[in-house]
Amino acid sequence: MTLSEAVARHARTQADAVAYVTADDRITWAEYDRWSDRLAERLGRCGLSAGDRVAVLLPDGPAVHVAFLAVERAGLVIVGIGPRAGQREIDHLVRLTGARLVVTGADRAASLEHLALPTLDPDDTRHGPDDERGPADPAGGMRPIADDDLWLCNSTSGTTGLPKCVMHDQLRWFAFHRLAVAAADLGGSDVFMSVLPAPFGFGIWTGHVTPTLLGVPTVVMPQFDPAGALALIERERVTVLAAVTTQFVMLLEEPTLADHDLSSLRVLFTGGEMVPYHRALEFEERTGCTVLQFYGSNETGALSRTSLGDPPEVRLRTAGRVIPEMAVRLLGDDGVDVTATGGPGVAACRGPLTCLGYFGDADANERLRTPDGWMLTGDYCRIDGDVLTVTGRASDFIIRGGKNISAAQVEEEVGTHPAVALVAAVAMPDPVFGERVCVYLEVATGSTAPDLDELRAHLAARGVGKELWPERVVVLDALPIASGGKVAKGDLREDVRVRLAAESGTTGDR
Prior knowledge:
The protein is α/β, with parallel strands linked by helices and 510 residues long. It has 15 helices and 25 strands.
């Protein structure tokens, strides 16, 4: 059963039950089904061919899920673009995928005009049962997407240049759904709340796939707000919350936390970055729920997971137990299998949760897998028994609030400023976001060092998304160089840690 078929079934069997909830609206399964049909009908009249790509650029909320379902029903492929994407990232993803149409709201239509692509306003799909146009023909003569067809393309941070585009079918997410149900004992009485961007992996399964297959409500927010989220958890009696580490830490820091009845909450699914043990334990103690996670990536899916039956030391100090179906192995820097010794090594896998590869990028696809077909994570891990622990990142990423930010991309963009001679971007520890972006600069001869505001204005003028904007600038006479001739980023990471410790009056010891 595809997602489209599941929604149609719910529209028949529980038409008036709630599918999506916002702070001021409730969308029933019948409305979800009908509005998706109407938008699919419009897509079918746009002269597209089966399998054509359609970009969806919408804020988080019911409309983005209506659009995803409509594209599926019209036999087309979703190109999911995050609402915080910069203009150049939008242009890149549209051109890379050859998207022939952009479904967007009025708030983004103006910024997309130069793409010369027609736009559709999802609000126009909100037709009542007495719509004078009569029954919709959602497929427009095209076969709806099957569960093993290319269904979704979404972006992922690359080590260089602009984002790569990951290809998904529905089957991988159905396999993921079954694992999630078993891990958290999910069922028809649950109420989900997903405060994650819908186009990305974590947001896909918690906001679009699993609640649909279960036929349960999902609470969504156009923009995450801790106080508003707590109020919705209490009002809607949410049982399953999905949030990256940064978001649940923000909930803990929210002054009104103690004022809300959160007794309905039984599970928090988190991930996207290292789960801080003490904060996760505090969240469990203050809410009474159990913190669970999957470890993996947009490309690999999950390699390991934690479950309700795992003790806190496994759930909160490790990445959980290896998923047998994913056949995880560890590879040394020389490519030799070190799984038998427990590693550390770069985690690799193959199994039902992996993606279909990258769209339109043969070189990246070659680097994604070993010659014998194992998909690489880019993370160094250990495996003790069946428990996996992440020990470090082989790829140069900064993980800010669960979002992978390519240090190389930041360096490339900041380096376009005429006053910058040399730049290195490193992760700066942060108690809320886990890591923030810090850039170290050498200034070009005869130039004045740009400050943070000047750099950000420069990047904004280039259409660079805010994820790549630095949050601290340190100017040095010369960047430290390692023996291999590269910038010694380890020295810079230590330097920023010492600077932060000095500013806070601590020793800097971890």
